[in-house]
């Protein structure tokens, strides 16, 4: 099977992830070898790279091959995938230098030490962004650990969890995308407690401090992530199943996706300088 | 009982299974009438995924006044202290709510919009 991958540029098209998921719909469960054609893919954001990598890793766990036809990849996209260490997942050599890309980290199981070192070395190390305050560093670290540990607690993801991001030196911001190929946050909520909620409603329910656990308190991870992002003046998006919820300083929006993400993608964008 | 958390569970306190282990230790000591002091100095990352099972679940077995009298914390900076207080407040609300009430309230909240 050969699938053309559309561009994912959220600055130009806020619905771009939806387009990618539309294109990938037949790919998640297809038993045939899959080739991704990037000839139309003029730009691939970290969200796009995270989804493609999740697809590849989930298919790999099922013994299915997934390749990129590198002859079709525009130079800019090819270079970006090499810098964020995704190219190596698809048989191409990664770049020795990441530049402003925050490279791929895949954790098949939770490895807190590796996650801590990754954040220290790739996000907080400095060079591209101003030195962050200790509080901001600590809160970012805490938020990421909450999100990643949620994957291993709730998602049942065959590929574990992965992180990819991007530093934006000009605007002094950084972005981190955490993705898994599991049940999906929305479906988890629907299945456990709230079958009548749409995926968007289920995501909102989850960020309001509620938990799918039946017999013990919980639900603070996403609630506190949201509070932290709001206080920072940053933004976040959560894609899960066929729902998406985004919050920026302009408020909260949510929309239904026309195709499903089998899993959850949480993208946060933070200011490197405290407000 | 005094527990230096980082010595038992390491500097990354994120794993719910570790939280359950700490809860069992604390509950055992409280059940014997002891006071418990948890020292978080040296912990680099503390998350609710650890604290919910470690501390929140204590409210299932002990009244809030017993816990506030006999369970104390040290070695927490401002950020971690806020997290611990959030976890404790959430647990108190959870275990004090009559069965079914929480779910009804939350369902109403989330149905306020359409998507």
Give the helices and strands, then pairings:
The complex is a heterodimer of chains A (275) and B (115).
Chain A: E1 2-4, H1 16-24, E2 34-37, H2 46-61, E3 66-69, H3 75-83, E4 101-107, H4 112-123, H5 134-155, E5 161-168, E6 173-180, H6 185-192, H7 199-207, H8 220-232, E7 235-248, E8 251-271
Parallel strand pairs in A: 1-2, 2-3
Antiparallel strand pairs in A: 4-5, 5-6, 6-8, 7-8
Helix pairs in contact in A: 5-8, 6-7
Chain B: E1 2-4, H1 5-9, E2 12-13, H2 16-31, E3 36-39, E4 45-46, H3 48-54, H4 64-70, E5 71-74, H5 78-96, H6 101-110
Parallel strand pairs in B: 1-3, 2-4, 3-5
Q: Which percent range describes the beta-strand content of chain B? A: 5-15%
Rg of chain A computed from alpha carbons, rounded to a whole number of angstroms = 18 Å
Q: Structural class, judged by helices and strands of chain B?
A: alpha/beta
Count of alpha and pi helical runs of chain A: 8
Instruction: Give the biggest sheet of chain B.
Output: 3 strands, parallel
What is the largest interface, and how many residues per chain? Answer: A-B, 39 and 37 residues
Relative helix content of chain B:
55-70%
Instruction: Give the assembly state of these chains.
Output: heterodimer
Number of helices of chain B: 6
Along the chain, the helix and strand elements of chain B come as EHEHEEHHEHH
Structural class, from helix and strand content of chain A?
A: alpha/beta
What coarse outline of chain B follows from CA principal-axis ratios? Answer: globular
Summarize the model shown.
The complex is a heterodimer of chains A (275) and B (115). With 275 residues, chain A is of the alpha/beta class.
Keywords:
heterodimer, A: 275 residues, alpha/beta, 5-stranded antiparallel β-sheet, 3-stranded parallel β-sheet, 8 strands, B: 115 residues, two-stranded parallel sheet, 5 strands, 56% helix, 13% strand, globular
Describe what you observe in this structure.
Chain A has eight helices and eight strands, in the order βαβαβαβααββαααββ. By secondary structure, chain A is an alpha/beta fold. In chain A, the strands form two sheets. Chain A has a five-stranded antiparallel sheet, sandwiched between helices. The longest helix of chain A is centred in the middle third of the chain and has 22 residues, at 134-155. The model of chain A has no long low-confidence stretch (mean pLDDT 92). Chain B has six helices and five strands, in the order βαβαββααβαα. In chain B, the strands form two sheets. A three-stranded parallel sheet of chain B has the order 1-3-5. A two-stranded parallel sheet of chain B has the order 2-4.
């Amino acid at each position: 099977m050969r699938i053309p991958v559309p561009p994912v540029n959220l600055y130009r098209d806020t619905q771009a992830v939806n387009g990618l998921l539309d294109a990938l719909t037949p790919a998640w469960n297809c038993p045939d070898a899959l080739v991704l054609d990037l000839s139309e893919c003029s730009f691939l954001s970290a969200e796009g790279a995270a989804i493609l990598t999740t697809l590849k890793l989930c298919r790999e766990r099922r013994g299915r091959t997934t390749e990129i036809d590198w002859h079709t990849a525009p130079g800019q996209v090819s270079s970006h995938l090499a810098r964020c260490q995704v190219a190596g997942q698809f048989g191409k050599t990664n770049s020795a230098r990441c530049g402003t890309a925050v490279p791929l980290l895949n954790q098949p199981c939770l490895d807190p030490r590796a996650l801590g070192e990754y954040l220290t070395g790739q996000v907080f190390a400095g060079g591209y962004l101003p030195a962050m305050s200790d509080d901001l560093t600590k809160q970012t670290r805490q938020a990421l650990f909450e999100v990643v540990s949620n994957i291993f607690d709730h998602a049942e993801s065959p590929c574990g969890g992965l992180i990819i991001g991007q530093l934006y030196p000009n605007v002094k911001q950084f972005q981190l995308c955490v993705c898994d190929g599991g049940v999906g946050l929305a479906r988890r909520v629907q299945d456990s407690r709230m079958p009548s909620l749409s995926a968007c409603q289920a995501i909102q329910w989850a960020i309001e401090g509620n938990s799918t656990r039946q017999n013990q308190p919980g639900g603070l991870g996403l609630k506190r992530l949201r509070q932290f992002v709001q206080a920072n003046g940053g933004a976040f998006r959560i894609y899960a199943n066929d729902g998406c919820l985004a919050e920026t300083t302009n408020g909260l929006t949510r929309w239904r996706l026309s195709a499903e993400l089998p899993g959850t993608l949480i993208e946060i964008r933070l200011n490197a300088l405290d407000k | 009982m005094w527990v230096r958390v980082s010595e038992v569970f390491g500097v990354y306190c994120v794993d719910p299974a570790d939280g359950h282990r700490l809860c069992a230790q604390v509950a055992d000591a409280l059940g014997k009438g002891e006071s418990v002091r948890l020292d978080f100095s040296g912990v680099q990352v503390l998350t609710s995924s650890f604290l919910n099972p470690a501390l929140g679940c204590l409210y299932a077995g002990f009244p809030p006044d017993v816990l506030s009298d006999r369970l104390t914390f040290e070695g927490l900076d401002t950020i971690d202290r806020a997290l611990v207080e959030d976890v404790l407040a959430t647990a108190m609300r959870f275990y004090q709510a009559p069965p079914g009430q929480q779910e009804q309230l939350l369902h109403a909240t989330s149905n306020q919009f359409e998507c």
